[in-house]
Amino acid sequence: xxxxxxxxxxxxxxxxxxxxxxxxxxxxxxxxxxxxxxxxxxxxxxxxxxxxxxxxxxxxxxxxxxxxxxxxxxxxxxxxxxxxxxxxxxxxxxxxxxxxxxxxxxxxxxxxxxxxxxxxxxxxxxxxxxxxxxxxxxxxxxxxxxxxxxxxxxxxxxxxxxxxxxxxxxxxxxxxxxxxxxxxxxxxxxxxxxxxxxxxxxxxxxxxxxxxxxxxxxxxxxxxxxxxxxxxxxxxxxxxxxxxxxxxxxxxxxxxxxxxxxxxxxxxxxxxxxxxxxxxxxxxxxxxxxxxxxxxxxxxxxxxxxxxxxxxxxxxxxxxxxxxxxxxxxxxxxxxxxxxx
Length: 341
Description:
- The chain is an alpha+beta fold.
- It has helices at 13-26, 31-46, 57-64, 94-112, 129-136, 190-199, 219-223, 234-249, 281-284, 289-302, 311-323, 329-340; strands at residues 2-4, 8-11, 76-81, 84-93, 114-123, 141-146, 167-171, 179-183, 208-209, 215-216, 227-228, 271-279, 325-328.
- It has 3 domains: 1-65 and 310-341, Hypothetical Oxidoreductase Yiak, Chain: A, domain 1, CATH 1.10.1530; 75-185 and 231-308, Malate/L-lactate/L-sulpholactate dehydrogenase, NADPH binding domain (Ribosomal Protein S8, Chain: A, domain 1), CATH 3.30.1370; 187-229, Wheat Germ Agglutinin (Isolectin 2), domain 1.
- Strand 7 (167-171) and strand 8 (179-183) form a beta hairpin.
- It is globular, with a radius of gyration of 20 Å.
């Protein structure tokens, strides 16, 4: 750990993982669960996705001690067909269930060309691209969908119904990092609007409405009885519906509007579901598919798109590997307090 003046410390990735794992264990997680969640959270912080990084640790701690999540749940895996894995996380974390099934899922995708992984009764509190990038590095094309708790009004609706319902897509590239995007179906991700509220800054017009259903740029008003809006009006609303049906519906979890945490008032995670579709491009297009991807990437560059999906994340990662992950001194003190109780 190194200091950068009085306001920031720079932490090596492994050091941050160890600190976060200690916090998870301090709040009841067994070592294997703590390691998976800590690596996920530290990866988000390292790559600049701050709304899914250490910002979430206090919420994780509150959830872990609430009794809402079964920290010792062993996922049940059903090998339903040559191209289908059904996973019951049994009220545990989705990342833990996915880690348990990853090797089998990759093998199935390579054997048949495609594999659907349907995870139910799971909590997902991290950045979705962390899930998809790992599969792209195995040479697979992957789509992932997860629903949440109701925070987003449907197009033309007047109250929260959908979750922010993110989706992620990743594809391998020849000689380059995978192309990866991860985006909410709402105009802004929930973590980002929470950060805006804490920092006292407005959000863009069209992000949400207040409790009287009037447009507002005040994140506090959106969060206090208001609602987020889908991006792109009816188009984003349709995509949010698709995510609900692929995750909460197809995988067998709760829909966002069905989630009820009232018995666990301190819990922050959401007990819903996740679906992933893994495709082996070598079986569909051929062994030179990655070269085909490069044709598209080069075309985008020629068209003037200087930054491709994932580029900023990878640049942040390289910088963090060189200099360490910058953490505000105040935030580091809060993390140490969570670790030490």
